[in-house]
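testing teh design pipeline on a random one, pls ignore if ur not involved
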């Protein structure tokens, strides 16, 4: 199935956060947007497993850091 292209307007601060997140995770803004839409629309099964594992690892690291600071 061919990918469709569309354009959106983002507030500047949201675009900055999107850029920072994409850079931090080593992915593209397009991939971040696709993953975010899939989660929002309830079709997270369309998100690759490697992406979901990465998100779980991020959450685990945050929890571990929180536990160490207590």
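output:
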């Amino acid at each position: 199935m061919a990918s469709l292209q569309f354009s959106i307007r983002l507030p500047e601060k949201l675009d900055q956060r999107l850029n920072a997140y994409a850079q931090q995770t080593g992915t593209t803004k397009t991939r971040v947007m696709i993953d975010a839409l899939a989660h929002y629309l309830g079709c997270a099964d369309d998100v690759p497993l490697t992406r979901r594992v990465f998100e779980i690892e991020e959450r685990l690291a945050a929890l571990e850091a929180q536990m160490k600071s207590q």
